[in-house]
Specification:
By secondary structure, this protein is of the alpha+beta class. The protein contains 27 helices and 17 strands. The radius of gyration is 35 Å and the shape is flat. GO terms for molecular function: ATP binding; glycine-tRNA ligase activity.
């Protein structure tokens, strides 16, 4: 007989952002537990609201299947003593398996006889197995945990009730002072306690008490109500997915409503209004059919439509107060110039172990100019870049950013334009923060992209030099995110960027007398490795084979763009018929070249050649070396791959480790020259070829 089981954890209201990952975790852990316990089932349906996490399992088996298995024990010579009696080892083994020595048989395995017994394990009834879900509940983890009462137990929020119902039967267990029952709770204000007769009644019973327990249905209902409001008023409402998810996890019985604010606040930049509504009040903003912001908002109440006008009025008052503050800051901020704000940054700390924010801007201006020249920016772009770098943090000391920290950069662009700055400069000020998440939008302008790299390089360099290097999961200054941003910008713009450019930027700082009182040069390699580690994470996330990633990252080429391109080229060629032969030829060169004494590696002396394969290899390598700077990575790989027959002929005809010291060193020098060319691709020894 198939069963239906309901498990519900009733809680004090959870933060909206943890509801979805928490129910996902409960489903995964429940599935894993049932699989480990050998209990089959048809489906698990999840339910979640701010006050509950629940799973309803259908098609549960009556019991675990019985198991008959053969268990191997000690060797026969250990199981029997000299007199042929059963040893303590044999007796202990059988006792542990729930059988007796009379059940022992012997079987030979690889020339040795061992004890074997047939073991029967009776399957446990599903009721007994389900009681173990207590450990699933208590084993859940959350980003923040709390204790309550006098208990040491920690959870996302205090547990208020538990339901564990197999069909119509309560599965008993207890967590702290809460014992499982068949009682769940309806909406906090509109509903009442519900006594469930059957596990299958759960969703319908809660709906009758003003709880839409299925998060997907609740989200769909919110979407439907908001779309109706939009249609009724001829509005356009963009349903931000993150906000919709958050609102879904804030309510149990949604009722959408529309409110408004004074049109005078439309003088404030749209970004400020949207931030106030979306991020601070969890409101959806409203546009007209032409995309213009309107003085209206839409929100969702956790309840029905009773007294909805009072709810609307209350929300309007709260928003009006926030917008009034925003208008005040917007008007006051414009009474000062950008130079005034830049001067104030001299007293604002970037970090107390590094410098002020003003000093950071001086460094970044030098780094940006240095990078701009190397990345091919024209004179106009470099002029705009340097201007942006000298002022790009000024909005940090404005009143608006002090109140709305989310608008860093955004208000910098707005105020820069109001102060008559070049639009390219203003755009770069906004874009230098980008990307603001691992997969966030990248700068669209060239000037903004270079400024973003320069700002992030300075942060990583100075924090490393101040010995504040991320370790494990500890990264309080988000340096990994900034490194990922650099890597993504470099890759997207197809710019070459390596450790030498970092060293040059530090030298430029020193020459301009803006370098911090920190040893940045000692961190060049560590910073380079840090950036390349982000390449590794990126490539593995794109399902590039581990050995290809290891080969690329393990080589001496620190050019970030080259690293990405080599990974793509090796991936493209890995299934070629001659890939194995090509890599084996190239890695043979690498392995033997490692035997060279670097102090004895010199220019190749052709007079020491004593077979035809040596000049052929020499000429072929010279040809690749001469073309190397002009070849892109795909062509460069093909040029090296074309050396395979020449390399194979060379090793067939040549004993590299000759008795004559001069000949040996000459041959090692020749292979070292080729090895250096190969290593531009990476440490190909890491590749696994079959």
């Amino acid at each position: 007989m198939a069963h239906t089981f309901l498990l519900e954890i009733g809680l004090e209201e959870m933060p909206a952002h943890v509801v979805t990952p928490s129910i996902q975790q409960l489903v995964q852990k429940t599935k894993k537990y049932l699989k480990e316990q050998r209990i089959s089932f048809d489906d698990i349906k999840s339910f979640s609201t701010p006050r509950r996490l629940a799973v309803q399992i259908s098609g549960l088996a009556d019991k675990q299947p019985d198991i008959d298995e053969e268990v191997k024990g000690p060797a026969k010579k250990i199981a029997l003593d000299k007199e042929g009696n059963w040893s303590k080892a044999a007796q202990g083994f059988t006792r542990g398996q729930g059988v007796t020595v009379d059940d022992i048989t012997f079987k030979e395995l690889k020339g040795t006889e061992y004890v074997y017994v047939q073991k029967h394990i009776a399957g446990q009834p599903v009721e007994s197995v389900l009681a173990g879900l207590k450990d699933v509940i208590t084993g859940m983890t959350f980003p923040t945990m709390m204790k309550w009462g006098s208990y040491h137990f920690e959870y996302i929020r205090p547990i208020k009730w538990l339901v564990a119902l197999l069909d119509d039967k309560v599965i008993p267990f207890k967590i702290l002072d809460v014992t499982t029952d068949r009682e769940t709770r309806g909406h906090r204000f509109l509903g009442k306690t519900i006594t469930l007769a059957q596990a299958a009644d759960y969703e319908a019973a809660l709906t009758s008490e003003f709880v839409i327990a299925d998060a997907k249905k609740r989200k769909a209902e919110i979407r439907k109500q908001i779309e109706k409001l939009a249609a009724d008023h001829n509005w356009v409402i963009k349903l931000n997915p993150d906000l919709l998810e958050e609102v879904t996890n804030l309510v149990e019985w949604p009722t959408a409503f529309a409110g408004g604010f004074d049109e005078k606040y439309l003088k404030i930049p749209d970004e400020v209004l949207i931030t106030s509504m979306r991020d601070h009040q969890r409101f959806f903003y409203v546009l007209d059919q032409n995309g213009k912001l309107l003085p209206h908002f839409v929100s969702v109440r956790n309840g029905n439509a009773d007294h909805i006008q009072n709810v609307i009025a209350g929300n309007e008052r709260v928003l009006a107060a926030r917008l009034s503050d925003a208008m005040f800051f917007y008007e006051e901020d414009q009474k000062q110039t950008i130079d005034d704000y830049v001067e104030r940054l001299k007293t604002v700390s970037f970090h107390d172990k590094i410098s002020t924010m003003y000093d950071k801007m001086q460094r970044v201006a030098v780094i940006a100019a240095n990078l701009g020249q190397k990345l091919g920016l024209n004179d106009t772009q470099i002029k705009d870049l340097v201007r942006a770098a000298h002022i790009y943090k000024f909005d940090l000391v404005t009143g608006m950013v002090g109140e709305f920290a989310e608008l860093q950069g955004v208000m910098g662009e707005k105020y820069a334009l109001l102060n008559g700055e070049n639009p390219v400069v203003a755009q770069a000020i906004r874009e230098h923060y980008m990307p603001i998440s691992a997969d966030g939008d990248l700068p669209e302008s060239t000037v903004g992209a270079v400024l973003a790299i320069a700002d992030k390089i300075d942060s990583i360099l100075t924090f490393f030099a101040a010995e504040m290097i991320p370790s494990g999961s500890n990264d309080p200054y988000a340096l990994r995110r900034q490194a990922t941003g650099i890597v993504r910008i470099i890759r997207t713009n197809k710019w070459h960027f390596n450790q030498e450019m970092v060293a040059d930027a530090i030298d430029a700082e020193v020459s301009a007398n803006v370098a911090p009182d920190l040893d940045q040069k000692a961190q060049i390699k560590a910073v380079g490795d840090f950036l390349r580690d982000r390449i590794k994470v990126t490539l593995l996330g794109e399902k590039v084979k581990h050995d290809i990633v290891d080969a690329v990252i393990g080589g001496p080429n620190t050019d970030l763009l080259d690293n990405f391109t080599v990974a793509q080229v090796l991936t493209d060629h890995q299934n070629d018929d001659d890939f194995k032969g090509t890599i084996e030829a190239l890695t043979r060169v690498l392995r033997i070249a490692q035997k060279a004494d670097k102090a004895k590696v010199t220019a190749v002396d052709t007079s020491l050649f004593d077979n035809d394969s040596e000049p052929k290899l020499h000429d072929a390598v010279d040809q690749v070396a001469e073309q190397a700077s002009e070849l892109d990575i795909p062509a460069y790989y093909n040029a090296l791959a074309a050396l395979k027959p020449v390399i194979n002929d060379y090793f067939e005809a040549t004993m590299v480790m000759a008795d004559d010291e001069a000949v040996k060193n000459n041959r090692l020098s020749q292979l070292s020259q080729l090895s250096d060319l190969i290593l531009r691709l990476g440490d190909l020894n890491q590749l696994i070829v079959k």
